[in-house]
Amino acid sequence: MKAELISIGSELTTGRNLDTNAQWLSRRLAEIGIPVGFHTTVADDLTDNLDVFRTALRRAQLVLTTGGIGPTLDDLTREVAATVAGVDLFEDAASLEHIQQMFARRNRVMPERNRVQAQFPVGSEPVRNEKGTAPGIWMKIGESFLGCMPGVPSEMFHMFETQIKPRILAQFPTSGVILERKINTFGMGESAVEEKVSDLTARGHVPEVGITASDAVIGLRIFANGPTRDAALAQAAPIEATIRERLGELVFGIDDDTLQLAVIRLLNRHRKSLSVAEGVTGGMVAHLLATVPGASSWFRGGLIAYDDTLKVQLLGVPSDLIAMHGTVSPEVVTRMAEGCRARVGTDLAIATVGVAGPDGGSEQKPVGMVYAALASADAPTVVQQFSWTGTRHEVQSRTSKLALNLVRLHLQRKP
Amino acid sequence: MKAELISIGSELTTGRNLDTNAQWLSRRLAEIGIPVGFHTTVADDLTDNLDVFRTALRRAQLVLTTGGIGPTLDDLTREVAATVAGVDLFEDAASLEHIQQMFARRNRVMPERNRVQAQFPVGSEPVRNEKGTAPGIWMKIGESFLGCMPGVPSEMFHMFETQIKPRILAQFPTSGVILERKINTFGMGESAVEEKVSDLTARGHVPEVGITASDAVIGLRIFANGPTRDAALAQAAPIEATIRERLGELVFGIDDDTLQLAVIRLLNRHRKSLSVAEGVTGGMVAHLLATVPGASSWFRGGLIAYDDTLKVQLLGVPSDLIAMHGTVSPEVVTRMAEGCRARVGTDLAIATVGVAGPDGGSEQKPVGMVYAALASADAPTVVQQFSWTGTRHEVQSRTSKLALNLVRLHLQRKP
């Protein structure tokens, strides 16, 4: 059992609009235990639509489409569904009346061209659209089921939940639940993390475990399934425990947890205040922390010393220290963190320096070379160096995470 | 001539991640006159990948893939490309050396697992990846061309522009250009902007003009076409002139221009330095400015006074002023901007205060209510109030833009 989602419209294949319907539907189908094997997007072209529908019906037992059921000439889905099923179209009186009523509710007369929206392939079931004029289509073609919905997200969401999902559940009643659990790690590269769990990520492992990298955060995804959500959770639990045991303090959270959320939680738990002194990250560390609701309880603020004179003026870094070691040095980042902690008056302070690029690199200090430091009352200042490859934005974003991770490790290691 | 884009990865078919690579590639291909007929997304499954590759090579003359070329066991693209071409894999010594060098630059030894990334289908051309360890693949299979790129957007963007696009142009000499020109505005809502240009956005207008809203930036997109880029530009030019005339100083840039880029350009042109004092935006204004390469010439840094005590301590706002008017007031934001300008010593300074939410709102100062201020040497401090609806992130992001827009208007109005 596998599903395919088809998104129809030239505004998608030209790249003018971004398709988000397929993502939304994938998540909803996972919740009822139906795995999605394919998303296909196709332009408003008859031949291409026929090809895509035939391909989907050959390889998937459930095919859901969005778009192409409007009243205009480039709306081809009705015709395509009838052609691949080898049947004619018929006009459904109830649907026509519903479309006329939709116009009447907006005090308008139905344009004649909307009449085409009441046409359906013979043998199909018209599907009521409560949010717009375009009805959907539900039909069996060969051994597969086809559900056609509008492309407008709000109309599609409603039609799926109220009309299509019940029909899917009626046809595929044994479907259980697919549950995805993601373990988020920071501090080690993708390959190195995978080496620690390669027996789990091997093809054919049950439950399936995948690994993904997103801007230096390495995630381990467990895809568990079972007849109920609890059963799926029970399948995932021992694998999660194994992963946590092997990866230890690399793990900072699950699912949508971010490093900044982990840091804010730890600050609250340990009742420690934090300030930031940002060089290369230019405000991004503070920005990430400030995105977390309730951040203000323990995150106080900080100093953006993007310019070297401000490192001296606002943070008290001696100018001869900068002259001797250069800004991008463990000495300077240490003094920035300590100066910030003293001047703002927080329990903890983090600082960043580095070369964000694209210009400004040298042989000794190439683009991507950065330092982060953490100053605290109860331990000597910690400095971490790293050399990133990537764009300016990536260097700033990953260095922000490097700095946040210093706070996380410091607090997480406390009893 | 038609192209198909294949996005590979179970994180896409499960709906965990949203694919944006296909949209980006569709736009780039349109620019060189290549229409995209299909986007296909497929899970990390060998049988399904073989099906998708064979289907694409049957119906498209150019097939570009993203993802599936990492070092892990679920990276199947190398194997799939070889299988559909009916050839074996070989190890490319130059690619292996390049991968080893990428690790050496990060002071790491290449894990044995990454060796697989130097394998290529016999008859294919290894494609250098300057931004990561996964090389791409270029090969002819039957009558079609296949280009395989990484899924990481920054790596893919660079590989497409420098390596894949030249190979496409060599095989498919361009027959015409579709050009999209976007005029970006800030300071007025979507409906109000549309009223000013409704004759241009009417259906059937040549060239087509669309309107999009993205986080308070309203964009007017002109879709022009012609045999050459110059011809398409010539079609767009008079419409762009009309739009600029009607919208006046609402316009801050074109295409991918951002408000922060407009501000950095204006600071450079007028040789004015800028600092920021951030309350509600918590570092986001500084972060946006710091994302612009070369920002450090005139953007000096600033103070994040997320906590009220820091507004007093770091910015010199009198505590009785906060007690009298509340933090979210024109009085306090004015003193923050002026205090920042004096303490950091810049020509201009901006400040923000407000209620980001989701909690902390009151009847008089509801969630979304914000102030931005601009202090300068040559004019009284300007304060702007706004009430946003939206999430915490949206309130912070839009308020950052409100503050940046004050700098833009101040400098743009100068002779």
UniProtKB/TrEMBL annotation, chains A, B:
Q: SMART domains from the entry?
A: MoCF_biosynth
The record's listing under CDD domains reads:
cinA
Q: What highest taxon heads this organism's lineage?
A: Bacteria
Domain MoaB/Mog: start-end pairs: 4-171
Recorded hits in SUPFAM superfamilies, A to Z, give: CinA-like, Molybdenum cofactor biosynthesis proteins
InterPro entries the UniProt entry points to: CinA (IPR050101), CinA-like_C (IPR036653), CinA_C (IPR008136), CinA_KH (IPR041424), Competence-induced_CinA (IPR008135), MoaB/Mog-like_dom_sf (IPR036425), MoaB/Mog_dom (IPR001453)
Q: Which residues form the signal peptide?
A: none
Q: Which Pfam families is this protein grouped with?
A: CinA, CinA_KH, MoCF_biosynth
| PANTHER family in the cross-refs | NICOTINAMIDE-NUCLEOTIDE AMIDOHYDROLASE PNCC, NMN AMIDOHYDROLASE-LIKE PROTEIN YFAY
Family named by the database record: Belongs to the CinA family.
This protein's name: CinA-like protein
Per the UniProt record, the source organism is Tuwongella immobilis
